[in-house]
Design goal:
- This protein is of the alpha+beta class.
- It contains ten helices and 20 strands.
- The strands form three sheets. Strands 12-11-8-9-10-14-13 form a seven-stranded antiparallel beta sheet. A six-stranded antiparallel β-barrel has the order 15-16-17-20-19-18.
- Strand 13 and strand 14 form a beta hairpin.
- Helix 3 crosses helix 5 and helix 5 crosses helix 6.
- The protein is extended, with a radius of gyration of 35 Å.
């Protein structure tokens, strides 16, 4: 199987790959892509047409102002300004109009497979990046080479070199034909002998209904007029059975009936069946709030909505993974006790865990004018400068800066991808940093009462360390959450929740508005598929 087919198959939560050059089996590999991924949510485009209808152009021009102030619009315009010089408002408006026109191809889906085989310029490349931001797996085919794409945009995608550059004619993709079932033929009305058939009416013929024939004399078994109230109905007497009814108690002995219930047969091995489960959906009457130190704004993101929220009950069998429209990992078996020791690994002391704060950053959130409006936290998960934080942190700002402990430099942040369902976002800075490992041990599970450590920047207090225990496992909407008692506050959103081995078991997200130390973190089982291609 080809490299580009393998790359799409192994990426479950979105990827952005450009394939340069032509291999020996280039066209056969494209046919394999069509066969493997065809269906709903699969697009293979050889070209992107520009809008020509005047009414549509006017409508898109009105929508361009709103899109330019949105989250996606600001990111795309910022990349375009860094890549192209000598641009003005008219050029930016034409770019947004083209992106809005092409985004109709993506529909309202938050995931799918997009393969673009046509001419690749700045507009087409930004459209593919927009699809990647929406959770699509994007593959850009460049058989003749990369062309004149700036290094700023090149960094947003992954490179796969298939062979030498060569001009090749790629056939257009023909979607599978939907076969409609033949119409169901209605059966002819059944006729019975002796039944007169009513003639069908037409515009030129009128048929009169013949008068009803009156019977002579009264109807059979009908009472005479005036005698309706004198009718007597004779009911024959009920035949009495000889002796009492079978299995009926004797009169006066009803209270002395004895019922013998046989003993229940005990199932072999039932004594070893566990009857405990520690995962539950959050009650509807407990209000939650996020812990990012950012004021509320219009149309902002709320990871725990209070309106129209449906409670997701825990599955009956926790050993079977949930099947959803999005990729959800295997749930944690909370009934299995944690082993006391690990082979080839030791628990860290409190001082050693506190020194891991150098891998947790403070994120400064700024508005479109460059003014600071709040702060939050982030976790370094890759030595090349990839940082994990909450989506509600970046959804409320326009520009972001990352600061490290014992480093006075503020590093500009680029947004790589995000997931607004599970409240996660992946950022990128140009700095090497020491990452924190993710808890991925399949043989050891998280349990209640386990000691945890939270590291973040609550209220702007850089890299505060607090400890506590896991107090429960909750399901908020469709997201697995860890409830813990380590104190956190506003500004801790995106911070690290670690075990005693210094591994990430969750990302601090929020807590209950009322109550003490009822805090929540996104589980590592949800984080792992989101960052699997970056660790």
């Amino acid at each position: 199987m080809s490299r580009m087919v393998d790359r799409l198959a192994e990426s479950g939560s979105g990827c952005f790959v450009r394939c340069v050059g032509v291999s020996d089996s280039y066209l056969l590999d494209i046919e394999e892509l069509d066969r493997r991924f065809e269906g709903e949510g699969y697009l293979r485009l050889n070209k992107l047409d520009t809008p020509t209808n005047s009414d549509e152009l006017e409508r898109l021009r009105k929508e361009s102002e709103e899109f330019a102030e949105s989250f996606e619009g600001e990111r795309l315009l910022a990349l375009y300004r860094e890549s192209v010089s000598d641009i003005n408002t008219s050029i930016e408006t034409n770019l947004i109009i083209s992106l809005l026109h092409w985004s109709k191809l993506l529909g309202s889906r938050t995931g799918g497979v997009l393969i673009y085989c046509g001419k690749t310029g700045y507009k087409e490349y930004l459209f593919c990046y927009l699809a990647y931001m929406k959770g699509w797996r994007v593959l850009v085919l460049m058989p003749e080479g990369e062309g004149k794409i700036s290094s700023v945009l090149i960094e947003k995608s992954e490179l796969i070199t298939l062979g030498m550059p060569y001009a090749v004619q790629i056939p257009a993709y023909v979607p599978p034909r939907v076969v409609t079932p033949p119409p169901v033929r209605q059966p002819a009305p059944r006729t019975y002998p002796g039944t007169p058939q009513r003639p069908q009416l037409t515009d030129n013929n009128r048929y009169g209904t013949p008068p009803r024939e009156y019977r002579s004399g009264p109807r059979p078994n009908a009472p005479m007029r005036g005698d309706e109230g004198n009718i007597r109905v004779t009911i024959p007497p009920r035949e009495r059975r000889n002796g009492p009814r079978p299995n009926a108690p004797m009169r006066g002995d009803e209270g002395n009936i004895k019922v013998k219930i046989p003993p229940r047969q005990r199932t072999k091995g039932s004594a070893n069946v566990s009857k405990q489960t520690f995962t539950a959906a959050a009650p509807e009457d407990i209000p939650f709030e996020t812990h990012s130190d950012i004021p509320e704004a219009e149309n902002n993101f709320s990871p725990f909505p209070q309106k129209n929220r449906t409670q997701t009950p825990p599955p009956a069998n926790r050993s079977t993974p949930s099947v959803m429209n999005r990729s959800v990992p295997t749930p944690i078996n909370r009934s299995t006790p944690a082993p006391m020791e690990r082979s080839r690994q030791r628990e860290l002391s409190s001082e050693e865990i506190a020194r891991l704060a150098e891998s947790v950053v403070m994120i400064t959130v700024c508005n479109k004018f460059g003014d600071m409006i709040g702060s939050a936290s982030g976790i370094v998960i890759n030595a090349d400068g990839y940082i994990l934080t909450n989506h509600h942190v970046i959804s409320k700002g326009s520009y972001f800066l990352a600061r490290f402990e014992n480093d006075r430099t503020a590093y500009p942040v680029q947004i790589v991808k995000y997931n607004n369902v599970h409240d996660m976002a992946l950022l990128k800075i140009h700095r090497r940093a020491k990452p924190l490992p993710l808890f991925r041990n399949k043989n050891q599970e998280l349990v209640r009462g386990q000691k945890v450590i939270a590291i973040g920047s609550p209220l702007g207090l850089f890299n505060t360390v607090s400890d506590g225990i896991i107090s429960g496992f909750r399901v908020i909407d469709v997201t697995d959450m860890i409830q813990f008692t380590a104190p956190i506050s506003h500004g801790s959103s995106g911070g690290a929740l670690l075990n005693t081995y210094g591994e990430i078991i969750g990302m601090c997200t929020g807590g209950a508005k009322e109550g003490q130390n009822i805090n929540l973190a996104v589980s590592c089982r949800i984080i792992e598929p989101f960052i699997m291609n970056f660790i």
